[in-house]
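At this stage, I needed to go through a protein sequence along with its fold in token form, as given directly below:
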Amino acid sequence: MTTTDSSATSSDSIYERAGGLDGLRRVVDLFYASIFQDPLLRPVFAHPVAHHVEHLTAFLAEVFGGPERYTKELGGFPTIISVHRARHITPEQRQRFVDLFMAAVDQTGLGTDTQLRKAIGSCIEFGSHIAMVNSNAATDADLHPQREMPRWHWQPTSSR
């Protein structure tokens, strides 16, 4: 998975540009605070789980080029698939998830970097679509074909 940014260098990961674990944790903290107040998403998440913030932060860190803790310590992509099974996420709930996540990105100030916002947004769109498909899968054959950790990175361009 790639997103293009003419000002990024090949060594400038999305993870680094977002402020590493601390930057991503701020976004995820704000996001999770908002979902439990949202009547459309509350049924999907039911109630706060102590590790939600830690796990989503670790997942995003890995996807964006940071430490591979989610894969090495927290179950990897098979875990993310199982977490969403039978949640029956609707298209409206998926879109609200994206909207609230991007609002959290904006609240932290990361959204002022338009290329970073675009990269994060494309990942959240992609991931939320996978979650929705997997949440409604009656069998393993119905699961989304993405079965391994996605990787979002900058694709340096030749035009500067």
Summary: The domain at 2-155 is CATH 1.10.490.10 (Globin-like).
